[in-house]
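Let's practice the habit of predicting before peeking. Look at the sequence and jot down your guess about where helices and strands might fall. Then scroll down.
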Amino acid sequence: MVKFCDANGNNVIDIGDAQYIASYLAGISGYNISQANIVDANQNNIIDIGDAQYIASYLAGISGFNIPDYTINDIPNDYNIGIKIDTNNNIVARLSD
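Done guessing? Here is the structure:
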């Protein structure tokens, strides 16, 4: 079982999860996200820096940023992640099933 938004797999939602997502998006070796729907914190079906920012905002206690406390048992492994660079030179990953 995996905790929602626990990108680094330590079973705690902490700043390390936001850092993990940012490192993954930067293409740093050793950072992999195999089940993208676990880390889609803002639930917009895109894995981008907004998910890391969402987690950081939640941890800072900013109103309107909520992460439900639940674990995910059976997540389909048939998601595809397409990574591209947008017109502002941001790395954007898109999910599809």
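How did you do? The mean pLDDT is 83.
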